[in-house]
Amino acid sequence: NGFVHPDFASVAALLARQIPKKTEGGAAVCVYHDARKVVDIWGGTRDRDGHPWLTDTTAPSFSTTKGVMSTLMHIFVEQGRASYDDCIATHWPAFAANGKDRITIRQALCHEAGLYRIDELITHASEILDWDRMVGLLAEARPVHEPGLRHGYHALTYGWLIGGLLEAIAAKPLQQILIDELVVPLQLDGMFIGMPDDALHRRARLITRDGVTAPLERRDGRLDAMRQWIERGLAKVGVELDEFRAAMTLNGAFDWNAQETVQAVIPAANGQFTARSLARMYAMIGNGGVLDGVRLLSEARVREMATVQSRKRDKVVFVPMYWRMGYHRAFSLPASSPTAFGHYGFGGSGAFCDPSRGLAVAMTLNSGVGTAMGDTRMPRIARAAIKSVDRLRQ
Fold first, then answer.
1. What's the whole-model pTM score?
2. How sure is the predictor about 248, in pLDDT bands with cuts at 50, 70 and 90?
């Protein structure tokens, strides 16, 4: 269902092939080009019971949520409430504990704060449901390396780090900040971090191949031998998994579909979004900070946001992420997109903009798992959208 401009028909054709045919699951894709919506499509099912994906269906989007959090921080800087090189503790005094008094907002956005080890903060996965507790634990945490010297993907802690800072600056809850700074100005139809009761009926359920809804929990059993073999192979080429496990692993069973999880505030991992809302946010960024007459960022701010801060290999996810401030490079398989940036997530969701092409693309879905940065579905959608624009320019 939905709408697609003929120039972008290849995007719709690809999504039709990606939606599961014999198993449950659905997806949505939205594309903006030159500040105009050219693709807004969806299909499949939103749960195992076969309920169809609808125009207003939201989906669990994991780390794609980090791009939304980063955008809120840039809006605050644009408004003059903070500067990138401010020490976080200037705005959030409790954060100064244990040698963190000089960590800057820029370092936090670039994953250089050294606070990614979730296994050192909590003993059981259920603790992440408590927003106040997690923000407090992060304020008390000790960096694992000198901030600013290295970068390691803050897979789960990023949300409490940036979210705690946003709340300290605004003196109001994160959910209200999201509404005031993005949802209302851009008239977004589905962007939640912690869903209210009256929106729960819209959500798609996460569907994995084996029915497990705890993709980040620590597992034991028959996969151990294969995992150990892979780890030994990676170690031979200088890749150690200790930091990956420390940043990604939750101890104990955890259900990402549970209502208490969906309604909690876990702003690095539990965003519930429509592809339409994500694409619209990135269309604003990719259009120089303005969309439909609403300006949230200056063109100079967007250029600064898009500037690569590091090309070195990330300590947690092993590969160079080309970190901007809160965004990574947009993976698009063979298609060249050096100026594109955004954030992808576990499970396959993702969103980005490419200012050089006037392009913004978003995908939400509820089937599959993939890697910490998703799988091949979003990069293939990205490639199809990029090639569509490039054909128009020929």
1. 0.93
2. confident
pLDDT-based confidence at 271, cuts 50/70/90? very high
Distance (Å, whole) CA 135 – CA 380: 36
In whole angstroms, give the CA distance from residue 336 to residue 339.
9
pLDDT value of residue 323: 93
Q: Considering only CA atoms, which of 91, 90, 103, 92 is closest in space to residue 142?
A: 103
DSSP states of 238-289 as a string? T--SHHHHHHHPBPS---TTSHHHHHS--TTTBEEE-HHHHHHHHHHHHTTS
Let me know: does 143 contact 196? Beta carbons within 8 Å: no
Two tokens at 34? 């030159």
Residues 82 and 339: their CA atoms lie apart, in Å, by 26
Task: Give the Cβ contact number of residue 43 at 10 Å.
Answer: 18
pLDDT for residue 230: 53
Whether the predicted pLDDT of 224 surpasses 60: no
Which pLDDT value is given to residue 235?
58
Mean pLDDT in residue range 185-202? 98
Residue 227 C-beta-side C-alpha neighbours within 13 Å: 10
- For residue 313, what pLDDT is reported? 87
CA 154 to chain centre: 11
| Inter-axis angle of helices 64-78 and 275-286, nearest 10 | 40
Q: How far is CA 83 from the centre of its chain?
A: 23
Two structure tokens written together for 224: 């151990």
3-state secondary structure of 54: coil
Q: Whose structure tokens read 């519930």?
A: 272
| CA pair distance 264, 56, nearest whole angstrom | 21
- For residues 96 and 41, give the distance between their C-alpha atoms in angstroms, rounded to a whole number: 46
> What burial letters (b/e) apply to 258-293, b meaning 16+ CB within 10 Å?
eeebbbbbbbbbbbbbbbbbbbbbbbbbbbbbbbee
Residues with catalytic function: 63
Residue 265: pLDDT band with limits 50, 70, 90: very high
Helices then strands, counting H and E runs in the chain, come out as 14, 12
The label of the residue with tokens 């670039």 reads: 110
One-letter amino acid for residue 271 of the chain:
G
Could you give the C-alpha distances from 190 to 101, 161, 274, 280, in angstroms and in order? 37, 24, 5, 11
The token duo for 367 is 């089937």
